[in-house]
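User: Before I run my own analysis I want an independent prediction to cross-check against. Here's the chain; please return only the structure tokens and, at the end, one sentence I can use as a sanity check.
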Amino acid sequence: MEPLKKLIFASDKIGRGDLNLSFGAEVNRKDEIGLLTNSLKSAAENTKILIQEIISNSDELNNGSSTLYMSAKQLAKDIKNISTSVVQISEIIEDNSAATEEINASIE
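Assistant: Structure tokens:
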């Protein structure tokens, strides 16, 4: 296959998402075909690296989201417990207040 046709074929494959290409001897050429081949090879390799970084960042984001969800769930549970405790304390204060009023009334 002619070098330019190989490059067209390779660029079509890259356009379809196939980044596992072999560029052959054209990468060693010192003319425009060699420059174009190396450029296309570099673009494919950089795209591959970018995709790997996106996947890695996506995994980290997913793990962070799970941690945040668990923290929010625990926080909601803790807030509910605090609310229950506040209600109980309020009831105790009301009972003590009523008892104090009874004591004061009996003293008078």
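Sanity check: DSSP finds two helices and no strands in the chain.
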